[in-house]
Amino acid sequence: MDTVLAGLINGNAYALVALGLSLVIGVTGIINFAQGSLFAVGAMVGWFVTTSLGLPLWLAAVAAMVVTALLGWVINRVAVKPFAGKAPIASVLATIAIMIILDATAELIFGPEIRPMASGLPTASFQLLGLRINAIDMVILCTSVVLMAGLASFLRWTRFGRAIRATSQDREAAAQMGVPINRVQSGAFMIASALGGLAGVLVAAYFTTISPTQGFTVGLAGLAAATLGGLGSLLGAVIGGLLLGVVEALGVATFGDSARQVITFGVLLGCLWLRPHGLLGSRSVKREPLTGTFFSAARKITIPPWAVAALVVAGALPIIPGLFSGYVVGVGVQIITFALAALSMTILGGQAGQLSLGQAGAVALGAYALAIMTKSAGVPFLVALLLAGIFGAVVMTVLATPSWRLSGHYPAIATLATGALIAAVAQVWDPVTGGGAGISLIPLPSVFGVQLDSNTMLYALGFVLLLTVCWLVRRWSNSHLGLYWRAIREDETAARSAGVPTPQYKSLAFGLSGFIAGIAGGFWAGQYGYINATIFNPLMSFQIVIIAVLGGMLSPFGAILGSIVMVGGLELFRFSSSGRLLVYGVVLLLLIHFRPQGLWTDTGTWSRLKQRFTRRSTAEAVSTHEHEGALA
Amino acid sequence: MPSDLLLDARNLNVHYGHFHALQDVSYTIAPGEIVSLLGGNACGKSTTMKTLLQLVPLTSGEIIFDGASTASESTADVVSRGIASVPEARRVFPEMTIEDNLLVGAHTRRDGRAAIRRDVAAQFDLFPRLAERRTQVAGTMSGGEQQMLAFARALMSRPKLICMDEPTMGLAPKIVDQVLDTIQRINRELGISVFMVEQNAELALSIAHRAYVLVNGVVTLSGGANELIRDPRIREAYLGQKAA
């Protein structure tokens, strides 16, 4: 019973975070990935007020809610409102950018260490029906109950509350009734954020410690809770949060703390498979996360074959020994690794229009498969690499298949859960994956008897892999596969009506993308000689999506260009790790603002320029850009 | 401008990108009038209504409502000045109760809770079917009942003019008659002007005083309902009868 009570306390925090998420999803249709960061900000404000200033906890709670509410207003202003009417993925990526910025700023200000917090709450406990109940448990549970009841009455009985409900049920009709939907959206964001901030203070007071990285984990758990309950359902968010908290607590009591993530994401995935719209979600959020203006407004930039050849030659330059320093070539290997991983999204997102927030899972599968095969079984590197790709393809296909029944936001969340689950399993499955310690001393890649023991040689291998995968992506896109995928991307119902077996082709896209990601993972394991589960966390999945989307998903060059900018460009800020993340977040936000369709895609400027310089007839120029079917 | 007009829309132009959706559209509505805007699919009917509600920006032109230009006003401003709307396909808030739907209709009002409560009661008098179901959620009602709710919701803002976007769309013929009756009652008993966007010319002209015909964003015909219903061009285009 003590375990259940502890679970309820944790679940309570998840419920508050999930409530905020669901409120925002209702009003805007956007998953706010920064919600967990607001939780962390709340905890830090709470620490500052109680521990540094020595003020009482209630004041800390108020301060945290004010600060996070203001941040919520800012988030809406910079990450959601500017993208109204554009593809929702723009907002989703923008909230990921905000999350990165907030977390990095917090780490810059507060440092990475865990701090003790003086909550000032009574530590007394009493017996009730044979249970030992701490006063602080009661304080936290009561606060939450009062708060949730308050929120429910606010939405039910007040003018602004009704306006929020009306806006989330039918935004356009609400606007026609004279409801100021922009103000409603701001208000919903501020309330949702304050809930997250308050949850942060409460949890910090309960555990009497704060850590700047807890926001990310809690954010994911909150998303899991909101999904369990049914996205957009507020009652569902509370039930989902409490349920997740209790199941987690029971699981942790049985299997140990390391199993926490396996349970969270296992429960989430299982629930999505059994009840596709959550426990209480009757009505799915209809907006598809990855269709729309990202594609329709943009055209692929096509470049002539001689330019492709020139780029290939330029890309091959680092292979010449001594031309660049070992460090620069090392960065080049990094760029290639991420470009390979992002190419898996080029197939899945750019062709089939499916968003995956779990590609790191496929990368992990490939990395572990290669590590185990080459280290324990002595399989030659190239064979192991191919098998790693196939392993990634098979497992991802199997895990992804049940998700095809889902619609709206749910498939993306299912992929997020799949990716996180794979990493979590790798973290606990000691005998096979080495658990937390990971696998070290993976043999260096050797190809046809040559051991690749320098950055230059690794670069050469990576470069050949990259060219091969680009060629594969191009072949698949130009075949009937690409045709069917694009049909699914543009209009899935129409594709199905035309006789395309859409679930099979989506699975195939997922499988082939798993193959490419697996190869990227194998290359990763081979070059570092060491892997552990924390490398392949959801942040890596986000990174892969960011590179693919911002590079431009219509052409394989997009993934490479994205990787050069987002991986290579940020090497310049290597001197400080949180500073680098901060810059990363800001660059990401700016890119989404100014090049939402990706760098390697055309919105018209390019064709106009090209027309001006080549003086070709308009008709000819237009026909060149009309179809994206033929790749560069 | 003649001061006896409730609404005077002059030379409205709207562009969606390169597409010229409304081209120099002008129309007027006098107090107490039912004016219909007729046209087929995608001819700019709904766009015209949205410009009136400030939901679509004008490229040029001006709308004068009740003596003042709406140019710098928000949707909330024009609603509180007296333009209410019944959206296409009714669009009631499906998971809210009848009562809450009505209260959202009164969102822009600032004259106190008691006055709003009185008006809710007044709607229930006008539409007894709604009174029976005040605590039921709107999504469970039939199409005809939802249409009544949409009218009642529009009346909650105490409008001088109600814009209706195809109020008879998708309803059974018997219900259509009820809807037309209701529109006439709102017009006669409450003295509210009606701007009705319709595809069905025969229905619209049976209750309208005047009408405009919109074809591909251009007003091609206008006049009294009695003249238009006899106009061979209308008969041919909308009533499926060959011009004699």
From TrEMBL, chain A:
The chain crosses the membrane at residues 12-35, 55-75, 87-111, 131-155, 187-207, 301-320, 326-348, 355-373, 379-400, 412-429, 456-473, 508-530, 542-569, 581-600. GO terms for cellular component: plasma membrane. One of its GO terms (molecular function) is branched-chain amino acid transmembrane transporter activity. The keyword Cell membrane applies. Coiled coil: none annotated. It is found in: Cell membrane. The keyword Chloroplast does not apply. It is a multi-pass membrane protein. Its main location: membrane. It comes from the Bacteria. Keywords: Cell membrane, Membrane, Transmembrane, Transmembrane helix. This is ABC transporter permease. The lineage of its organism: Bacteria, Bacillati, Actinomycetota, Actinomycetes, Propionibacteriales.
From TrEMBL, chain B:
InterPro entries: AAA+_ATPase, ABC_transporter-like_ATP-bd, ABC_transporter-like_CS, BCAA_Transport_ATP-bd_LivF, P-loop_NTPase. Pfam families: ABC_tran. GO terms for biological process: L-amino acid transport. Belongs to the ABC transporter superfamily. GO terms for molecular function: ATP binding; ATP hydrolysis activity; branched-chain amino acid transmembrane transporter activity. Keywords: Amino-acid transport, ATP-binding, Nucleotide-binding, Transport. Residues 7-241 form the ABC transporter domain. PROSITE patterns: ABC_TRANSPORTER_1, ABC_TRANSPORTER_2. This is ABC transporter ATP-binding protein. It comes from the Bacteria.
